[in-house]
């Protein structure tokens, strides 16, 4: 193969992988709650925050209410075979001290919610939080916390599942670190454009725009891949989202600070490949343990259950190997039919069909507007490149 042929082949490969990433980005958009759902969740969040902050209970006189978890990070995906999604909410009770019972902290927040007749009918008690079920759309999980005076990083304490003691956590610190890592930009050969005071405080609901960084997309893609992978597995052993998110964020930071990449898809693959290297395996009293630590506080191990439930360890490594193989295969295959088949296996037929049908409609519109191109190994595309050739408008009468 001469130099010109190799150059064209290289450009074609780069363009194909960039096009695949744009499809993955569309899949993530489809998996997110709709604007209507998010607006409803925001309204409900603000209303619940106002209700909690207006309590006459002196212990609730000073609170800080804010969203955390996937809603705070911008990594929410719709669950499979469920119509509602979750919004995690922290109610930080500033006047409550760690020398009081953890069960009391949970009780006073629940009592306040029950004082509202509407919330009382929607309220469901969980082990560590109170859930408000909004019919069919979403649910709010309200977790009470207190200040962790021993954490210099602004950490908090949350009741454990037994409600006998407090455990360290730091949702705000975690979100700040995740956002810092997500703001890091990889070095790419191909750049694609994808289109407190002394009173109660309720933070604004986090609003994330349609354009998200690669780290958020990696987390969303992995969470959906996990959901599909474990769909037919009866045992409750799927890796929890916070483990996936933490390992992906650590790996992403390492990869973008260490390597340069051809395309966004290569960033995704490298990040997934390196994730397992950020699982700590300390030797404790002669026994090898698993630790996926919350780096923003001391004492919170997201993989705590791995040390008593070995099936979870095996499940993670088996799933991770499958995810990596699927993404590596996606980077190598040619042709939209084969790409679509791969995506269906990983993300589900319904979602992929919606995305691909939408892209077909966009291609039809682009053809009419003479903004359609054809590229080797990809086919019809909306993105121009040196390897792509413009497609002329079809008048269906042989005229050009």
What best-fitting shape do the alpha-carbon axes yield?
globular
Low-pLDDT ranges = 192-198, 372-380, 391-400
The N- to C-terminal Cα distance equals: 36 Å
Per CATH, the class of the domain at 34-169 and 199-206 reads: Alpha Beta
Helix content: 40-55%
How would you spell out the order of helices and strands? HHEHEHHEEEEEHEEHHEHEEHHHEEE
Rg calc: 24 Å
Strand content: 15-25%
CATH level-3 fold name of the domain at 34-169 and 199-206: Beta Polymerase, domain 2
CATH architecture grouping of the domain at 34-169 and 199-206: 2-Layer Sandwich
* Count of extended strands: 15
- Helical/strand content category: alpha+beta
Mind describing the biggest β-sheet? 8 strands, mixed
Mean pLDDT over the full residue set:
87
Give a written overview of the molecule.
With 400 residues, the chain is α+β, with helices and mostly antiparallel strands. Among the domains are: 3-16 and 333-391, no CATH class; 34-169 and 199-206, Beta Polymerase, domain 2 (2-Layer Sandwich). It contains 12 helices and 15 strands. It has helices at 3-31, 35-53, 69-73, 102-114, 117-122, 171-182, 214-229, 241-258, 264-274, 310-330, 336-347, 349-368, and strands at 63-68, 85-93, 123-125, 130-134, 138-147, 156-159, 166-169, 187-188, 201-202, 260-261, 283-284, 287-288, 372-375, 379-381, 389-391. Strands 1, 2, 3, 4, 5, 6, 7 and 9 form an 8-stranded mixed sheet that branches. It has a 3-stranded antiparallel sheet with strand order 14-13-15. Helix 9 (264-274) runs antiparallel to helix 10 (310-330). The chain starts with a helix and ends in a 9-residue tail after the last strand. Mean pLDDT is 87; it is low at 192-198, 372-380 and 391-400.
């Amino acid at each position: 193969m001469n130099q010109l042929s190799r150059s064209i082949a290289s450009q074609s490969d780069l363009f194909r992988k960039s096009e695949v990433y744009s499809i993955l980005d569309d899949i993530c958009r489809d998996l997110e709650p709709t604007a209507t759902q998010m607006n409803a969740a925001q309204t409900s969040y603000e209303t619940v925050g106002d209700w909690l902050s207006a309590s006459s209970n002196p212990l609730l006189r000073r609170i800080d209410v804010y969203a955390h978890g996937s809603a705070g990070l911008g990594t929410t995906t719709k669950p499979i075979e469920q119509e509602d999604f979750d919004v995690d909410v922290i109610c930080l009770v500033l006047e409550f001290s760690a020398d009081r019972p953890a069960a009391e902290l949970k009780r006073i927040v629940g009592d306040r919610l029950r004082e509202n007749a509407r919330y009382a009918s929607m309220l469901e008690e969980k082990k560590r939080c109170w859930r408000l079920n909004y019919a069919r759309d979403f649910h709010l999980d309200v977790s009470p916390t207190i200040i962790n005076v021993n954490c210099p990083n602004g950490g908090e304490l949350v009741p454990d599942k037994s409600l006998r003691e407090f455990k360290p956590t730091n949702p705000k610190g975690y979100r700040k670190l995740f956002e810092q890592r997500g703001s890091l930009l990889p070095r790419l050969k191909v750049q694609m454009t994808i289109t407190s005071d002394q009173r109660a405080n309720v933070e604004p609901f986090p609003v994330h725009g349609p354009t998200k960084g690669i780290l958020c997309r990696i987390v969303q893609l992995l969470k959906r891949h996990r959901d599909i992978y474990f769909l037919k597995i009866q045992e409750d052993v799927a890796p929890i989202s916070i483990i996936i998110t933490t390992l992906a964020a650590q790996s992403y930071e390492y990869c973008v600070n260490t390597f340069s990449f051809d395309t966004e898809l290569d960033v995704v693959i490298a990040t997934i490949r390196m994730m397992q290297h950020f699982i700590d395996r300390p030797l404790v009293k002669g026994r090898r343990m698993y630790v996926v630590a919350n780096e923003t506080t001391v004492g919170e191990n997201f993989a705590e259950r791995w040390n008593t439930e070995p099936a979870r360890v095996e499940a993670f490594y088996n799933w991770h190997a499958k995810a990596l193989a699927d993404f590596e295969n996606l980077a190598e295959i040619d042709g939209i039919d084969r790409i679509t088949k791969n995506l269906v296996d990983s993300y589900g037929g319904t979602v992929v069909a919606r995305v691909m049908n939408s892209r077909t409609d966009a291609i039809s519109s682009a053809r009419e507007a003479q903004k359609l191109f054809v590229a080797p190994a990809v086919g019809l595309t909306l993105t121009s490149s040196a390897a792509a050739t413009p497609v002329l408008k079809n008048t269906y009468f042989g005229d050009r």
